[in-house]
Write a structure and sequence with these properties.
By secondary structure, this protein is α/β, with parallel strands linked by helices. It has four domains: 51 residues; 117 residues, PAS domain (Beta-Lactamase, 2-Layer Sandwich); 160 residues, Reverse transcriptase/Diguanylate cyclase domain (Alpha-Beta Plaits, 2-Layer Sandwich); 249 residues, TIM Barrel. It contains 24 helices and 23 strands. The longest helix has 35 residues. The relative contact order is 0.06.
Length: 627
């Protein structure tokens, strides 16, 4: 049998191997040839099926939808993600790709993503991409997607002939989760996570925008800076969880009272800001502030626990085109602190006086921090005398600050600044340490025990480690606790009475004495103060001034002395500046007095000399307690 003409190369190789040198094949050789051909193609088919199965497995675990498209734009294969996003496999395979990719804001407005010439663009030129498109498949929900078509070109060799082969792979990535994450991140960047209100970034951005609009329209915005009065006391007394609930509920009340065009934000802690835009009249911002102030009148009810709180509000208007968002917010903040200084639960508007003070306040805060870091603060001592016969019994430590730029800064100015900026704790600790150190020198020089009075802020007293810190200071300077008197204002006790009583009891157990400074200017009475373990009352200067010519004033002081004696309190008159005042105080039964008439505050060296020269007094503040 002769060789069949025009055999396929594979058949020709098989034929050559069997026939050897050539010649006719018998029937057995033909059977062998057919078996060899069958085995070869079966093996190739098995390998092809395995490779196809492996390819499908790989494509099915790919997180993106994959569609293989032939040169005519018809889908030939898809993976599992394509089925999930676009529809059943039976409807995808065989469909033209340009009919599958429909996008638009609604189903009715959806149009084809690919134009009529997409094949010329993709198959014969370069890859095609489209991100953040909303695809709307026929039988699946719409979703945000990133799309990409990558062309593949090859040459198929068929014997001595070659054929160009073109295909493309379309990948579609579901970007829905990414958009959700992006939206969440954007929300977090502009909102307070506790209250859901805006944050500083949001209100600053909107204020910048409002300023830009106002420069064209002339309708300038205003800012309210809101602080919850004595919030820290509530937080300490009832716990952080209740404090957080109070912040949330307060934020809701504020948001309820503003207009729809206004922006409410929580800056930090118990501080909120309201941006008032589109002010048709100048008094709209005041009206909003008044509603917010009044909204806090009703107590907050937390599981039967009624919490009453007020607000201090500062208002700042924009009146200059050059004003920046940060400057306006800072002015409202300054006005808010003025509201606190004037009694809380009120509204104060930023004015020209505050405008002059604002740059000084910023510079002074920076300078005060440096003074604390560099130990530039000094302590002076004002003597306290026995009114009969006028002998020294104690010194009160008073902090002083002299700065190269500001000169001698009054404590009336820098002590409130330290309170507002959180520096008061560090300042108080520094004064306490210096005063106890200086008192050690008096002990070595004087012939008797001289008492030391040191002022303590509410922030210091509320610190959980204050008692242990004070104990360490006393031990370090070898100071007897009973010689130290800590002076507190009435407001410190009123902020959180229960906690203050517990802390004062711990201080009494340590052995120190407790005095109420500036007694009479606060809201309490002697009967109220019986709740606390007190030892000394220092009557404020306003009751002492002009006492010789005021029968009514003498009556008030006599009542204070008599009630204090009944409670076993020591009474000290502050601010004695006239001789007749001292005479009246003696007649009223005051045991001790302090003021410029007797002695001005003096540096440590002069205090040491005074202590060394002083006679032993007949009556001391430092005495064993009878209570």
């Amino acid at each position: 049998m002769s060789e069949p003409p025009q055999l396929h190369p594979l058949l020709l190789r098989q034929f050559t191997e069997i026939s050897g040198a050539g010649g006719a094949l018998d029937i057995d050789q033909w059977h062998a040839l057919l078996r060899a051909i069958s085995d070869t193609y079966s093996s190739a088919a098995n390998q092809l099926a395995f490779q196809q199965h492996r390819l499908n497995a790989v494509l099915d675990v790919v997180s993106a939808a994959v569609l293989v498209v032939d040169e005519s734009g018809v889908v030939s294969a898809v993976n599992a993600e394509a089925v999930r996003l676009l529809g059943p496999q039976t409807e995808l395979v065989g469909a033209r790709i340009d009919t599958l990719l429909m996008a638009g804001p609604t189903d009715q407005s959806a149009t084809r993503v690919l134009g009529d010439d997409w094949q010329d663009t993709v198959m014969y030129q370069q890859r095609w991409t489209l991100d953040d498109v909303i695809l709307r498949p026929k039988d699946r929900p719409a979703f945000t997607a990133d799309c990409e078509i990558v062309p593949y070109r090859a040459v198929i060799v068929d014997g001595e002939q070659t054929h160009p082969w073109r295909t493309a792979v379309l990948t579609i990535t579901d970007a829905t989760d990414r958009d959700g994450l992006r939206a969440e991140m954007q929300w977090q960047a502009t909102h307070d996570p506790l209250t859901g209100l805006g944050n500083r970034a949001m209100v600053t951005d909107r204020l910048d925008h409002a300023l830009a609009l106002a420069s064209r329209s002339g309708s300038w915005p205003a800012v309210l800076f809101i602080d919850l009065d004595r919030f820290k006391s509530v937080n300490d007394q009832l716990g952080g969880a209740t404090g957080d609930r109070l912040l949330v509920e307060a934020g809701r009340r504020i948001a309820r009272e503003v207009r729809s065009v206004d922006t409410v934000a929580r800056l930090s802690g118990d501080k909120f800001v309201v941006l008032c835009e589109a002010l048709e009249t100048a008094d709209i911002a005041e009206q909003v502030a008044a509603r917010v102030l009044q909204s806090m009148d009703e107590p907050f009810d937390f599981n039967g626990e009624l919490v009453t709180i007020s607000t201090s509000i500062g208002l700042a208007r924009v009146d200059r085109p050059s004003d920046t968002a940060d400057e306006i917010i800072e002015r409202a903040n300054v006005a808010m602190y003025r509201a606190k200084e004037n009694g809380r639960n009120r509204i104060e508007t930023y004015d020209s006086i505050m405008r002059t003070a604002t740059p000084r306040r910023v510079d002074m805060e920076r300078a005060l921090r440096m003074a604390l870091d560099n130990d530039d603060l000094t302590v002076v001592y004002q003597p306290i005398f026995n009114t009969e016969p006028g002998s020294l019994v104690a010194f009160e430590a008073l902090v002083r600050w002299e700065h190269e730029q500001f000169g001698k800064v009054s404590p009336v100015e820098f002590i409130p600044l330290a309170e507002e900026t959180g520096l008061i704790a560090a300042l108080g600790e520094r004064v306490l340490d210096i005063a106890c150190r200086d008192a050690a020198s008096w002990r070595e020089t004087a012939r008797f025990t001289i008492g030391l009075h040191v002022n303590v802020s509410g922030r210091q007293l509320s610190a959980s480690n204050f008692v242990s810190y004070l104990s360490r200071v006393l031990r370090h300077h070898h100071m007897e606790p009973s010689t130290l008197t800590l002076e507190l204002t009435e407001s410190v006790l009123l902020d959180n009475p229960e906690r203050a009583a517990a802390r004062l009891m711990a201080l009494r157990d340590l052995g120190v004495r407790i005095a109420i400074d500036d007694f009479g200017v606060g809201y309490s009475s002697l009967a109220y103060l019986r709740r606390f373990p007190l030892d000394v009352l220092k009557v404020d200067r306003q009751f002492v001034a002009g006492i010789a010519q005021s029968p009514e004033g003498q009556t008030i002081l006599q009542e204070i002395v008599d009630m204090a004696a009944g409670l076993d309190y020591v009474v000290i008159a502050e601010g004695v500046e006239q001789p007749e005042e001292l005479v009246s105080l003696r007649e009223l039964g005051f045991q001790f007095a302090q003021g410029y008439l007797l002695a001005a505050p003096m540096p440590p060296a002069e205090a040491l000399l005074l202590a060394a020269a002083s006679p032993i007094p007949e009556q001391m503040i430092v005495e064993p307690r009878s209570r």
